[in-house]
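User: I'm curious what two different proteins look like when written out as structure tokens. Can you demonstrate?

Assistant: Sure. I'll show them one after the other, since each token string lines up with its own sequence. Here's the first protein:
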Amino acid sequence: MFGIQNIEFVNPELLLLLLLIPAIAAWFFIKKKDQHVSIKMSNLESIANTSTIRSTLRRYLPLLRALALAALVIALARPRQTLKEEDIKAEGIDICLVMDLSSSMLAQDFKPDRLEVSKRVASDFVSKREHDRIGLSVFSGEAFTQCPLTTDHRVVKEFLAGLRCGLLEDGTAIGMGLATAVNRLKESESKSKVVILLTDGVNNAGYIKPLTASEIAREFAVKVYTIGVGSTGDALTPVSRRSDGKYIFGLARVEIDEELLAEIATMTGGKYFRATSAESLERIYAEIDQLEKTEIEVTTLKRYSEEFHHFALWGLILLVIELFLRYTVFKTIP
């Protein structure tokens, strides 16, 4: 069906002919006035109130012809509807998020705690990576894949939202977390494979050493960005756990093995970041987003739907109606 959206004219200069219509109308009005013959009558009562519906409607015949001419002029200008199609070829990046779920992630130096802030910021990051496959691995004293690589980012964000401490044996097995992520990425055919590893502690568990996992990552061309999350000094942190599973909080020293995290990043061509607040963590993910840009090739195709025939048809219909009425119903005798 014909619409007025995305309409353009191939010959827009012909639309200037529309200006001739009021000029022609004025010329016919003057000419018609000159053709009238004056008759002097002593009394006009005999011809008063002689107007009929037929004579009234006949006055509007020129309007039909004007509309017909306008439609034909528009048809000559050749209106057409532009239909755009975008063919997007995106070479996405495979990204695996690795999240620390040790009990120290419940420390309250971030509000409400480190884990909730980390989940929120990571979810915002996922939303920006429209064309990438993203997976999620978690670790504490052990590690496992929470979500395999997928382009369904809604699922990834649902898994992120459901993360909580206590799912695994407590501890900080950085090497296990990294190795789990690399295991997911090693078979990837993507030209760029990235791990974003977030932790707030010191490696103290697991049977795979962090540097061993880093060597494996380098072997499979996996770039690792490491993030140490936590303020400086002391923080209100879980120090023990009651029999009912609830954590007991107390002040504890913030300890992050920054030297290890920096070495992991350097070995794999990545970068180490330190987040001491929610705002700095947001800036870190924004920087990683800029560093790992997805290559996208966009080809725009244009298709056109010719619409001039609608105007030409209506112009002819109006012209035929006008001629038919002029020489039949509203015919006058000179």
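Here's a second, unrelated protein for contrast:
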Amino acid sequence: MQRRVPQLTRAVWIALLCTVPFLAPVAASAQGSVSPEGALFLLVPVGASAVGLGQAVVASDIGGESLWANPAGIARMTQTELSINHSQTIIATGDALNLVVPAGKAGVIGATAYLVNYGQQDETDATGSSVIGTIYLRDYVVAATYAATFGSRISAGVTYKFVQERVDCSGACVNVAAFSASTNAVDIGVQAIVDKARRLTLGFDIRDAGLKLQVNDAPQSDPLPTRIHLGASYLVPNIEKSIPDAELHVSAEVVENFSLSAAALRAGGELVYKKTFFVRLGVLGGSGDGASAAVGFGARRGGLSIDFARGFGGFSSDAGKPPTYLTLRYQF
């Protein structure tokens, strides 16, 4: 991020360096320049189902994970869902708690809280021999979603997000200036079932549109990584003739990034067996975790589900730690 902040403290430099690897997947065609966007952690996916599908989920039914994809995706949910989403890359761990509650004819509401933890570093005295404090590097998102259906084919949703980046220090941190930078953002999305057989769904979403993230002063503020997602999901017919009790869903989407480069393409497929076991494959571009492909697995028993996904390619995989995602959910 190009911030011309004079006399940056060591903690601020650490925070900036922690975000630099996230620039790789979104700055490929920016002629070697560093991304001018802020809060790039918002580009990192949340949820194992979405990751396993190559993040091509703007038109997909992925339950409460839609809070982080297309908010219109929760509009048809009929059961309350509580889920925990965990992610791990070489840079950070992420944990999101999602809650979705159907409200009858009034629609569906959702809420989520997300923490990205870059770890901590010891602060030492002038001689470097004694630890006098600890520096903590964190990003936070708290969000609320409302979605509703319009007739039997159209659904729409909106999400409000409070976004914050923080550097905190405990102990005798005389040489470290703690700081926090906050902003607000919204996601707006629509899904439409367009064929008589109700197999083809189109989706459109504007994600992370909002005010600039101001770290020091207004001239040095950074725009949010706003993206436009347009895609489709299709339930392939006659799969059960080859594999009894199976379904095959395929999806694709285009992600438009106006600030840096050409549109990114994503595609995924999900094979469902007896509505209990799930196998997912995806290929993608423009992912915040740097992955170019993904694989995922899932299982459901009653209202309890577990999903796992792993990304391949990008900086984290190259460093020996492929991006890993785990989602536990309970519907009741």
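A detail about the second structure: The domain at 10-331 is CATH 2.40.160.40 (Porin).
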